[in-house]
Amino acid sequence: MKDRFANRTLAVCAFACLGLTTGIASAQQGASMPGMDMNSSSAAEASGSTPAFKAADHKMMQHMQAPSYTGDADKDFVAHMIPHHQGAIDMAEVELKYGKDPEIKKLARNIVKAQKEEIALMQRWQAKHGGK
Questions:
Q1: Residues 34 and 47 in one domain
Q2: For residues 49 and 40, what is the distance between their CA atoms, to the nearest angstrom?
Q3: How many other CB atoms are there within 10 angstroms of residue 116's CB atom?
Q4: Are residues 94 and 61 in the same domain?
Q5: Do residues 90 and 70 touch, judged by C-beta distance below 8 A?
Q6: Domain match, 109 and 58 both
Q7: Structural domain of residue 10, as residue ranges?
Q8: For 28-85, how does the pLDDT look when each residue is reduced to its tens digit (9 = 90+)?
Q9: Are residue 7 and residue 57 in the same domain, yes or no?
């Protein structure tokens, strides 16, 4: 019984590893083609939302890297969460501009409202605690 279980486990692991190495090889092939983004389709690139989402992502990542760490968990949390929340607002605004599904647009409106309120709270906290 142990041998059958071990053989099945080995077979599953081998299959998973084969799939993983195949995926890695595919990713490497895509990476080796300059100027080609293998993760996007021409339809996605033609949509105005794709560059808008990419810009929002880029802006958020830049601003999240900007604050230096102070060693104060509270200050560091707030300093990094503000751009994270702003990124959520920026992405929600892209959805509001380009999205079509009423339920998702409602979600986006709720995200904008909630994240703005939380940013304001964090900024007030920063002002009281000498941080930014």
A1: no
A2: 13
A3: 14
A4: yes
A5: no
A6: yes
A7: 1-39
A8: 444 443 443 445 555 555 578 888 778 877 777 776 675 688 899 999 999 989 999 9
A9: no
